[in-house]
Specification:
By secondary structure, the chain is of the alpha/beta class. It contains 12 helices and 10 strands. The chain is globular and about 65 Å long. It binds flavin mononucleotide (FMN).
Length: about 375
């Protein structure tokens, strides 16, 4: 499949993320679909991530002039069209022949910030060359720090304007379905950014395997400082759930935090991210932008995240479904749908700008809006 011009290609006939998921299930192999869909363990947190957003009740203000609705924001020096960012997700060539090249085209067409994964299947230099909008690079620190520093430099040279250090995966999560499927990359598909990296051999049988050869289990706060010391661009920490960890970011050279449980793919029974968000927002006390991801499927979810103090949200699975169904145009479609739903939510809430999305828009149990 050649490059898709996202502007020229008619989008598939879907009106929400759920319909796109159903189409992705039809298009992908059962193994690839399960890789995207799955969580860890008994997938309690996977369900909570989505449910928890729906449990929050809204308290709209009416008789507000909403003739103009503005979803724009400024984030780490970028002017963004909406607070919907594309989260780092691995292995896009499992979902589209052009992989991350297609994703970055879709992101640009949607005017959305894209975070490319270390575990991409197209090299960061090629993705950077294809990018016409802003993008960040997600870092998994490798055991070989020299290789990691060199990879970071490659990403920066290619145009990454921030590094997103993922901290919530020191060891493997219990991804039963992937283990049952013995999920690996198909022939001809590789982790292009890790070419030449010497992996630590792991001879353990699958039932005893705990460590991921692509992740260093020794990483600590010292390595956050190490990454900041080699980085030429801001460092964002992804995977923060605890308020004390969020507070600790203030003592390190961290530019933003992402409240995330990795899409419920690592430690099952951690809380839904929306439950962790208020504690992190309170802990950083306005000194850093707080982003959140996990289970965001509707514009109302985006609005709720901002009402609770997030600056922006990231989406993972939804844009992967879009990529699988319709390449770049599918990625753009997902962002467009969420942005339109967000505009509807803002209009209906009486909140014409993102700054108007305040805590008084939450309905409390006594039947009164919260003040
Ligand atoms: C298929 C898939 C691959 C992922 N790969 C990565 C990755 O390489 N690095 C990372 O930091 N997070 C990764 N994540 C987690 C996402 O960045 C994000 O935290 C999560 O998908 C958000 O939840 P959502 O899918 O419910 O929107 C991955 C998620 C999925 C679904």
């Amino acid at each position: 499949m050649g490059p898709v011009d996202p502007a020229a290609t008619p989008p598939p006939d879907v009106v929400n993320c759920h319909e796109l998921e159903a189409l992705a299930r039809e298009r992908l192999t059962p193994q690839a679909f399960a890789y995207v869909a799955g969580g860890s363990g008994d997938e309690h947190t996977l369900a909570w991530n989505v449910e928890a957003w729906s449990r929050i009740r809204l308290a709209p203000r009416f008789l507000v002039d909403v003739s103009s609705i503005d979803t724009t924001l400024r984030l780490l020096g970028h002017d963004l069209a909406s607070p919907v960012v594309l989260a780092p997700t691995a292995s896009h060539r499992l979902f589209h022949p052009d992989g991350e090249l297609e994703t970055v085209r879709g992101a640009a067409a949607a005017e959305a910030l894209y975070v490319q994964s270390t575990l991409a299947t197209v090299a960061v230099g090629e993705v950077g060359a294809a990018a016409t909008g802003p993008w960040w690079f997600q870092v998994y620190i490798q055991r070989d720090r020299g290789f990691t520093a060199e990879l970071v430099a490659r990403a920066e040279d290619a145009g990454a304007s921030a590094l997103v250090l993922t901290v919530d995966l020191p060891v493997l999560g219990a991804r039963d379905t992937d283990r049952r499927n013995s999920l690996g990359l198909p022939v001809g598909v590789e982790y292009a950014n890790l070419r030449g990296l010497e992996l630590v051999p792991d001879d353990l049988p699958p039932a005893r395997r705990v460590y991921n050869p692509h992740l260093d289990p020794t990483v600590t706060w010292r390595d956050v400082d190490w990454l900041s010391s080699v980085a030429r661009v801001p460092v964002v920490l992804k995977g923060v759930l605890r308020a004390d960890d969020a507070r600790r970011c203030l003592d390190h050279d961290v530019a933003a935090v992402v409240v995330s449980n990795h899409g419920a793919r690592n430690l099952d029974t951690v809380p839904a991210t929306v439950e962790a968000l208020p504690g992190v927002v309170a802990a950083v006390d306005g000194r850093l932008p707080v982003l959140v991801d996990g289970g965001i499927r509707r514009g109302t979810d985006v609005a709720k995240a901002l009402i609770l103090g997030a600056t922006a949200v990231l989406i993972g699975r939804p844009y992967v479904w879009g990529l699988a169904v319709h390449g770049a145009a599918g990625v753009k479609l997902v962002v467009d749908m969420l942005r339109t739903e967000l505009e509807m939510a803002m209009g209906l809430l009486g909140a014409p700008t993102l700054a108007d999305l305040g805590p008084d828009l939450l309905w409390d149990a006594s039947g009164e809006p919260l003040r």
